[in-house]
Amino acid sequence: MITSLAVDHVDWLGDDIEKIGFEKAGIFRSGRPAVCGQPTPPASVAAHADDIGAELYQVGYQFTYEQKGEHWDWHSGTFDLPNLPVPSLPLPNAATAVMALGLVGLEISDENIVRGLKKRPPGRPDGKGVRKAGSDPGCGTQPAFSGLPC
């Protein structure tokens, strides 16, 4: 899943958006769904997905979203999730994550999606700036995240 693309981390990813797109598309796997939340990604993203046989799900084509005040709607084909709460993370990232969740083959209820959108991920901006490591009292308390810096 690629949430966004920008000319950053040029030492690792390359110095132009096509190179960066290709490097980030390296997360895609052959025969698996690939999700991209960048509205106008570089051609290298779709080309890499095609080259390896990954089915690309692109925002604006296979899924869309629209904010409506304090809520937002998500759509993919004939499946809709209306009136979702606006999350604490960037809305384009949340919409992309919802698409990815829909593709993993798990049964996730609409209620659980709403519950997840209402949670603030540890280490994410809190409206006053980015949280510092260790500033989240719940950080590292879940077994999957124990020992990781927050």
Structure description:
There is one protein chain. The chain has one domain (10-118): Mur-like, catalytic domain (UDP-N-acetylmuramoyl-L-alanine:D-glutamate ligase, 3-Layer(aba) Sandwich). Helix content is 29%, strand content 17%. The chain has helices spanning 10-13, 17-24, 43-52, 91-103, 110-118, and strands at 33-36, 55-58, 64-68, 71-76, 79-85. The protein has a three-stranded antiparallel sheet, with helices on one face.
Summarize the structure.
The protein has 150 residues and is α+β, with helices and mostly antiparallel strands. The protein has helices spanning 10-13, 17-24, 43-52, 91-103, 110-118; strands spanning 33-36, 55-58, 64-68, 71-76, 79-85.
